[in-house]
Design a protein that fits this description.
By secondary structure, the chain is mainly alpha-helical. The protein has 31 helices and nine strands. Regulates COPI-mediated retrograde protein traffic at the interface between the Golgi apparatus and the endoplasmic reticulum. Involved in the maintenance of the Golgi apparatus morphology.
């Protein structure tokens, strides 16, 4: 037997060759009989005939690619041994093929043994060795018995004589018992060894004993033996056999049954043989996706099976399916793809990512489902190294700018900041410093504490991308106010970052010649470097895994309680940080180029036009004598002094309001309470006061008129 490539399709096959000159007359007769049977017998568990050629000198029998069972078991034992799951399904197939011959074709095999079983690429057992097949109707045959051709096979013959009156299948099931013994214990030395059970599993022992029983009439029909072993707790009753049986009948199963099967399949794949997963499960998964009979549930088992494929096989079989999946409008499909992108990203080439995948992925940034937006942001960590200049520095930055400033979910804004810090090494050098400074500055004013911490960590992790001038003029003024942030974690990270930047400035101040060395990465081309690892370290130690622990465990309402340049209407949410909902942002405006967009965003200013000249503790000074700039500066100083970072109303509105209420709110703490009111609360307070005034006027009018008399008409 040898394996060659098929002449037409290129698919591998197995070729069985018999040379007439080298065999005896009996062997030639058996070879021709087997050739004839292989052409006429068709069954999923019988070795498949592909082609054949018969000449005066030789016989060629072409079948599906297979390996003899003995060689397969030997290879398995050398690599750790065949598992019981694999053997259970193999025996199931062998008995099913034998039952087909005995019960449906009314034939007897007469040659069952390890030499008659072959294993295909999927690990499935196929029945062959049809040399001695005869009819069970008592018709005369000219074929010689197996022991005549090969005397070593005599030990596999049943102990009774051929005409002992047993069932017609008694000889075949006896040999089935011998096959089971050899599968678990190795080659059978003698017939008496069948009494020693050896390594035969306990669940199989009672049924094995029936097969090799001395009474031929008590030996079960192959179909009954299969049924007994499939009963609850039987050797052939397990998840592997059940999965195989379902796959054999998958075409006639209901859609709901297929859905449930693929959903449960991923849990069992780890215990299934590798060859079975590659050659039997994978084709069914690909077919299920192609015809849309399973949806997103095929993804998890598909990627699990993909681990067994070589890079070339993955490109041929999995990648075309994945590319097609990204164009799906099914949300479940899209989010599964994003969640499991790490398993296949290394197989995607840059051309496919930029032209076929990224254009579909970016739709997730504007999806109404927060989970999809969040997963889309996280997926950029894997896609960024493969994106081209336009997609990375323009398209992606445009979406990040909108998400960070307008998304109503705090965790998504936070993850956007985290992601931006991690993909910083890939950004264009001319755009990077401007984008990072503006984006992280914006994050430090976010109402969500985790976002503010992420902004600080972003500055620290990407410190080598900023010039000394940028550090002193923009970054340190942004970080300093965070040293009095209401959230302790933000304060701690701010102090660490400030010390880091100050050390950098001091180094240059002490030795100006080091400036070039310190700023060498500012204009460096975008490459994957150590900064990503640095960022990851900061994220883990400083924020305790932003995307899982800190965000998910933040107290409800914390987002609205501590704001920096937030809008006025931020409600305290009680739905948990992962789904914390803040004030909605304005509708999207016309998009601009990425770099300009981020710079033009209202990030907030940290520098006062004039230094505050008014002592915050001397609030009773002549307010009306101050200029508008001095009033604005005084209010800012007052808020900063009392750690009030919620600029809930514009300074102009706040100054006018304070001026009108000066006589009532000259006390320091009273003012602080006003400064902390939102627009909604101020409006509500005004409505309440107006309502009380109207009620008081009505009461005065009623008191002036006196009580109504009986029958009098009420005129007001």
């Amino acid at each position: 037997m040898g394996c060659v490539n098929g002449c037409t399709t290129g698919e591998p096959v197995s070729i069985f060759l018999y040379e007439v000159a080298q065999g005896t007359e009996e062997q030639t007769q058996l070879a021709k009989a087997a050739f004839k049977r292989m052409k006429t017998l068709r069954h999923p568990n019988i070795l498949s005939y592909v082609d054949g050629l018969e000449t005066d000198k030789s016989l060629y029998l072409v079948t599906e690619p297979v390996t003899p069972l003995a060689a397969h078991l030997k290879a398995r034992s050398e690599s750790g041994g065949s598992g019981e799951l694999e053997i259970s399904w193999g025996l199931h197939q062998t008995v099913k093929a034998l039952s087909f011959l005995v019960n449906d074709c009314h034939l007897l095999h007469n040659n069952l043994g390890t030499w008659a079983i072959f294993v295909d690429r999927a690990g499935e057992w196929k029945l062959g060795g049809l040399d001695h097949v005869t009819s069970d109707q008592g018709e005369p045959t000219s074929l010689p018995p197996a022991k005549v051709v090969n005397p070593d096979l005599e030990k596999y013959d049943p102990p009774e004589s051929p005409n002992s009156g047993g069932e017609k299948w008694s000889g075949d099931v006896w040999r089935l018992g011998c096959l089971i013994w050899e599968v678990f214990n190795g080659p059978l030395p003698r017939a008496s060894s069948l009494r020693s059970l050896g390594k035969i599993p306990k669940q199989l022992v009672p049924h094995y004993c029936e097969l090799v029983g001395a009474n031929p009439k008590a030996r079960p029909n192959p179909a009954r033996f299969l049924q007994n072993c499939r009963s609850s707790g039987g050797f052939l009753s397990n998840s592997f056999v059940e999965s195989n049986l379902f796959l054999e009948q998958i075409q006639i199963k209901e859609p709901a049954e297929k859905q449930q099967f693929f959903q449960d399949l991923s849990e069992n794949l780890d215990s299934f043989p590798e060859d079975f997963c590659k050659h039997k499960v994978l084709p069914q998964l690909l077919t299920a996706f192609e015809f849309g009979i399973a949806g997103a549930v095929v993804l998890t088992p598909l990627f699990k099976v993909g681990k067994y494929l070589s890079a070339e096989e993955y490109q041929q079989k999995i990648i075309p399916v994945i590319v097609k999946m990204f164009s799906s409008t099914d949300r479940a499909m899209r989010i599964r793809l994003l969640q499991q992108m790490e398993q296949f990203i290394q197989y995607l080439n840059e051309a496919a990512v930029n032209s076929q995948i990224f254009p579909h992925v970016v739709h997730g940034f504007t999806d109404t489902n927060p989970a999809i937006r969040e997963q889309t942001v996280k997926s950029m960590l894997l896609l960024a190294p493969k994106l081209n200049e336009t997609n990375l520095n323009q398209e992606l930055m445009r979406h990040f700018a909108r998400l960070q400033s307008r998304d109503d979910q705090g965790p998504i804004r936070c993850n956007t900041t985290v992601c931006l810090g991690k993909i910083a090494p890939y950004l264009n050098a001319g755009l990077r410093q401007r984008v990072l400074t503006s984006a992280f500055s914006r994050a430090t004013k976010d109402p969500f504490p985790a976002s503010r911490a992420a902004g600080v960590l972003g500055f620290a992790a990407t410190h080598h991308y900023y010039s000394v001038t940028e550090c002193a003029g923009r970054i340190l003024p942004t970080l300093c106010p965070l040293t009095v942030d209401p959230d302790k974690n933000v304060r701690d990270q701010a102090f660490k970052a400030i010390k880091s930047f100050l050390t950098k400035l001091e180094t240059v101040s002490d030795d100006p010649t080091k400036l070039a060395e310190i700023e060498k990465d500012v204009t460096a081309s975008g490459q994957a470097g150590g900064s990503a690892a640095t960022w990851a370290g900061w994220a883990v130690t400083g924020v305790s895994s932003l995307t899982s622990k800190l965000i998910r465990n933040a107290p409800a309402g914390s987002e609205g309680a501590t704001a920096g340049n937030a809008s006025a209407g931020i409600p305290a949410s009680a739905t948990g940080a992962a789904n914390a909902t803040e004030a909605s942002h304005p509708a999207d405006e016309a998009e601009e180029p990425a770099g300009d967009r981020w710079d033009d965003e209202d990030w907030g200013s940290l520098e006062d036009p004039e230094k505050a000249q008014t002592d915050p503790d001397d609030w009773n000074s002549d307010w009306s004598a101050m200029s508008s700039t001095q009033k604005k500066s005084s209010v800012r100083t007052l808020c900063m002094h009392k750690h009030i970072f919620t600029a809930v109303v514009s300074f102009a509105e706040l100054c006018i309001y304070v001026e009108s209420m000066q006589s009532l709110y000259c006390d320091w703490f009273c003012f602080c309470s006003i400064a902390g009111l939102s627009k909604a609360e101020l409006a509500k307070k005004k409505r309440e006061e107006r309502r009380k005034e109207l009620e008081a006027k009505r009461a005065e009018r009623k008191a002036a008129k006196g009580p109504l008399k009986l029958g009098a008409r009420k005129l007001d």
